[in-house]
Amino acid sequence: MKKDIHPTIHEVTVHCACGNSFQTISTSTKLDTDICSACHPYYTGTQKFIDTAGRIEKFQQRYAKSKKTK
Fold it and tell me: Tens digit of pLDDT for each residue in 15-24?
């Protein structure tokens, strides 16, 4: 096999947006993620809405208006 063609592997700490962190190995030196197994609805069994700019409320208001007209 050829020498020095494989990337170096580092032990890194992965930081999630929910505040959870854990150790893993990666070719990258720093890992940040938005969602992990500690906050993902599939693993936790609870549903959380990550609402930016009130999009859910806007949809619910529009849906309520169309429901009233029917």
Answer: 998 889 999 9
**Residue 29: half-sphere exposure toward Cβ, Cα within 13 Å:** 0
Q: What total of structural domains would you count in the chain?
A: 1
**Does residue 36 fall inside a structural domain?**
yes
Report if residue 44 sits inside a domain.
Answer: yes
Radius of gyration in angstroms for the set of CA atoms belonging to the chain, rounded to a whole number: 21
Residue 6 CA to its chain's centroid (Å): 29
pLDDT digits (tens, 9 = 90+) for 53-64: 677 788 888 888
Minimal CA–CA distance to 40: which of 18, 25, 24, 56?
18
